[in-house]
Amino acid sequence: MRTSGCLALALLCAAGSASAQIKIDERTEVRSLKLEGVKALAEHPLRALIHTKDRGAMYGFRVAMGKLPLVPSPTPQPFSPLLLQQDVARLRRAYRAAGFPHAEVHYDVRRDDAKNLLDITFIVTEGKPLVLTDVTIVPEDSLVPLPVAASDRRSWSHLEHAVLKQRGDRLDVNESRQNRQRLARWWQDRGYPRAIVNTRFAVDSTTLHGRLAYRVAPGVLARFGDVRVEGNTSIRAESVRRQTRIHAGDRYSEQAIEQAEMSLRDLDIVRMAKVDVPALAPPDSTTLTLPLPPPDTSVTAVASNVPLPPPPPDSILPVRVRITEAEPRLVSGDLGYVTDAGISSEARWSHRNFSGGGRSLTLTGLAQTGWLAVASNPDIRYRLALSLKQPGFPLWNMTTALTPFIEHRDDSQDRSTQYGLNSTLVWKARRVQTVSLDYQIARRHVYEYNFEDLATGEIDLLTFLTHVAQGQLSEVGTDLSTSTFTLAGSAQRLDDAANPHRGAIIRPSIQVTAPQPWSSTSYWRVGATGNGFLPMGRRSVFAVRLGAGWMTPFGKSVPGPGDDPQVKFLQLRDQLFTAGGTADARGWEDRLLGPKVPDIRFSTVGDSLVPRAEGYVPLGGFARFSFSSELRLPLPGFGPNFGSQIFFDGGRVWSDDARFGMSADPYGQEKLFVGTGAGLSVRTPVGPIAMSMGYKLNPSVVDLIDANDLLQAVNAGRPIDQLKQHNGRRWQFHLAIGTSY
Fold this sequence. Notes:
The chain is of the alpha+beta class. The protein has three domains: 2-125, membrane protein fhac (Ubiquitin-like (UB roll), Roll); 130-326, Ubiquitin-like (UB roll); 329-737, Beta Barrel (Porin).
């Protein structure tokens, strides 16, 4: 222990800038880490290179929380002088790789003797950058021009232009390496599997100017040979070959091999898939790398040369497909809880290679029970569906699915049973880009309408509600037919699909009813949602979500002479937009942001029907806009599986359509509403658990008054702005355990 202390003291005295000796022991920890002098580079990636750990934020609070049962105390982070020296070396290498050959990194250490803590500041002197005055792309053999096919000249020209943009910029080793890989990959996708790109770098150490040359050696043109399948037991080799879309005689392409692997993994029966060309395998397990060394001002030229392998005797390259099959039959399920639907579960039985060909058959049962739900009108739903999925039909990158289903629901809209058939065609351009066309034909039988209101909220609301309760509203109908086409897309670019920190997702959709005689309603419905993620430090993420939708009725759904506009509005209730809930504007209960009315129920007292209100039900609208901005933060002292969120949500739902008598907004429920709040989340082996508390910043009058008070005021003809407002209704709690359905 004494030797270690002497070594630490020597290192700190030798490299640090502290004027006095710094004493440390096995209990010394770092209180803070700072960077000074960082201008040209971003601080976040530099901090990621520092392995010395500080005690972290809110240390005292974490210590206090650690005294509670089942709450871990902060893990000690002993200071290591050797690790500090390694951090300095890593920072210097990062600056040299970024084009700062004279960059220097030192540190200053301050000690708090009373608490045995260190405050460390890394001091960076960046120096002048190394500028690329010339960048060229030339053949390895200057006497032989690059064999760019006529059909590829435009693509090659675009790539050259993108690479040559480095000219005049500061040297960046990572960018140069990426450009070298892009150039080699371009040739490898066009029939040259042994294409190699070398880099030649010359430096003028006096002026800090450099010249970079990419030297391209395409190699020999090659074509695919026969495709051999290994590892298949239940799925036929012909089905596997058809899914790869690699044919003998086609030009070799790295992209074709990657697409073949992606396409094979889409088969449920395939657990693992590997497509390769044995003739291109390296002679040993060593991975061939093409490093570009950082510039060294003591050397006038740097070359990155890789010896070219001798050309193969035959340019025909057989392909090997190795797969590992999953169990043909699978039983699985999920159990969860959400405040809007209570305890929820889903069970699935699948045959992953039903009758061969890679097709799958899945039986799914869903139950949203409403048990223990916090919402006053929980979404109770039971669904049974049988799905037959055929990959590679009608085209190799398409999947067709047929799904008959039956569903019973009892929610704020109605108590009804629906049965029907979905036929879906999915086209997958890439792993993260899909387009689907869905056709659904279904019929719904309504046993009881829970929607007991007038669209306008006029005084005659009570009469209309009485008719609904007595089952006299035959105009709405008890049997509703649906025939809709839906075109939807999904495009995303994420660093991690399960837990994204950077990237975006966009999901547009458009829906129309057709043929008109097969549907009880006629409308167009357009919508889109987008999610964006941006890292804010090592573990924090800023997430944004935007959503918008618009719907316009036509044909039989537009009120004509003698039609009741309110009845026509009710017929479209399933398709109207709503907002609010666990995964939406969290300051509001499920679907209750915007227009809503009391959920009126009637009880018999003597010979009379006495109305009472049990909360609110959504009215919905023809248009919707919603947003959410959320800062996701780590929960100090609780490990990587715990997190916290601070959010700002909002939205608007409205129906500015005079044809339906919806232009008026007597209670101010069609404005833009916003809320804020915070939440906690934890990832567990059985799924995520999320809790959040939202607060309405600008609630409507209806948001703050009791539904029974509103009903009595309407019945008595009193204005609702005189009713008692409850500020406690500004708060809304949400809880989700596992997957929500």
